[in-house]
Amino acid sequence: MNDITRVVVLGTGVLGSQIAFQTAFRGFPVVAYDIDEKALAAAKERFEGLAATYRAEVDGAADGKAEEALARLSLSSDLADAVKDADLVIEAIPEVLEIKRATFEKLAAAAPARTIFATNSSTLLPSDIAPFTGRPDRFLALHFANRVWTFNTAEVMGTADTDPAVFEAVAAFAERIGMVPIRIHKEKAGYVLNSLLVPFLNAGLALAAGGYAEPEDVDKTWRIGTGAPMGPFQIYDVIGLTTPYNILVHGSESDQRLAAWLKENYIDQGKLGVATGEGFYRYG
Ligand code: NAD
């Protein structure tokens, strides 16, 4: 009953396209759903781009496997048609509860009763969404990290209502697509990774914004002192400064001071991280 073969990914943005491609790369047929033809045209380009990245970075991808993955992917802007035979639907649409609610309500009506639903939401808890799914026992979070082919954790987190057999089926599926499943026993905002990472990044920022040490020296200390490959500011540059800024600016008073420092010294100067060629460091 919980065999997962046919997968649908909702949303073909940054993460949805990666989840869909990785799943197809590991041999599963995948339907990638997005709202309209324009979004699907963008998805097609993203998939071609991912194929090129996989060819360069993933073992075996250059021997035709990236093309095979592309062939297993189909695109749809018809939700009911996309999910009619789905075993698992993974949602990766914008991080806006109202959009998720409307989509899960439509999905609940369209998908077979046996279909498992998963959300990739980073900041919402699955229990925020479960009431709209029509099947709280077959719903949970399956949370990927950006660049899924390299940073291959898949955090699996249910609600009190998630059927343990569904939880295990999704963890096993995550493993079959090349992820390392991380089983989280009860709901936790930030899962495991962000529960560790966010306070760590903020602590680094507070040292630099408070004038205690230069970002490069904070990073150097962390690298030499722990053997870790990257310090907090190198990580900020990879993530991009906009998302952390948006989170901090809505936080406590001290978070808001950190946000103001980031804005004045980096964001207002277009230094947004690796993607713009400069953040705390210069690239290219
Ligand atoms: P994104 O903005 O890159 O992509 C969102 C996609 O959803 C777009 O293709 C958009 O056309 C589509 N969309 C918009 N409305 C839709 C609807 N009603 N139905 C279906 N598709 C719709 O977003 P993203 O960064 O890929 O994030 C998606 C989800 O993944 C969010 O919940 C986010 O918290 C989570 N996430 C993101 C990251 C990350 O690093 N970007 C990491 C882990 C988890």
Descriptive keywords:
284 residues; alpha/beta; Rossmann fold; N-(1-d-carboxylethyl)-l-norvaline Dehydrogenase, domain 2; 8 strands; binds nicotinamide-adenine-dinucleotide
Explain the overall architecture.
The protein has 284 residues and is α/β, with parallel strands linked by helices. The chain has two domains: 7-184, Rossmann fold; 193-276, N-(1-d-carboxylethyl)-l-norvaline Dehydrogenase, domain 2. 47% of the residues lie in helices and 13% in strands. It has twelve helices and eight strands. Strands 3-2-1-4-5-6-7-8 form an eight-stranded mixed beta sheet. α8 packs across α10. It starts with 6 loop residues before the first strand and ends in a 19-residue tail after the last helix. The structure holds nicotinamide-adenine-dinucleotide.
Summarize the structure.
With 284 residues, this protein is α/β, with parallel strands linked by helices.
Q: Which molecules are bound in this entry?
A: nicotinamide-adenine-dinucleotide
- Strand percentage lies at 5-15%
What's the name of the CATH homologous superfamily of the largest domain?
NAD(P)-binding Rossmann-like Domain
Q: What is the CATH-assigned architecture of the largest domain?
A: 3-Layer(aba) Sandwich
Low-confidence stretches: none
Q: Could you state the order of secondary-structure elements as H and E?
A: EHEHHEHEHEHEEHEHHHHH
